Amino acid sequence: MRRIIVGISGASGSAYGFMALQALRAIGGVETHLVLSSASKRTIALETDMAPEDFEALADVVHRDDDLAAAISSGSFITDGMLVIPCSMKSASAIAYSMNSNLLVRAADVCLKERRRVVLIVRETPLHLGHLRTLAQLAEIGATILPPIPAMYANPTSVDDIIAHTVGKALDQFGIANELFKRWRSPEK
Hints:
alpha/beta, six-stranded parallel beta sheet
């Protein structure tokens, strides 16, 4: 069985994290370890009709963000990597510079030091030079930056279609087969 850590930060877009957890559960064969930041719980309440418990119910294991002794805080706990979805610039900055004051950041830092896949669905716009430097630092240390940018070629008809595209692209980064979005095909002649 594969093992993926899913971190949900306080950035706008908690629906991305929810759909990622739903998709991983539906696909099967992946043990999910969830970390909700304290800010994510506030964002969930502001943006959705759901509660943090709805997110937690989709995970195999839930870790408290203040538990720096959790299994996922150690490189000896084997995972396939971590998906932070959505990822605030605050969390991205902390990950970029190993400021391990909470479990979400520590788990991502561990994945990076162990050369495991880290995919960050960074939610911020516009970006100033400090943001860009942080993202460059993350790319240099091995993270994949995957902003939630919709593919209009798929002709999305709902917000869920747009979210599914990003979630599907994120799962692609881990080699997890999915059919969450319409993939590009050569146009008919």
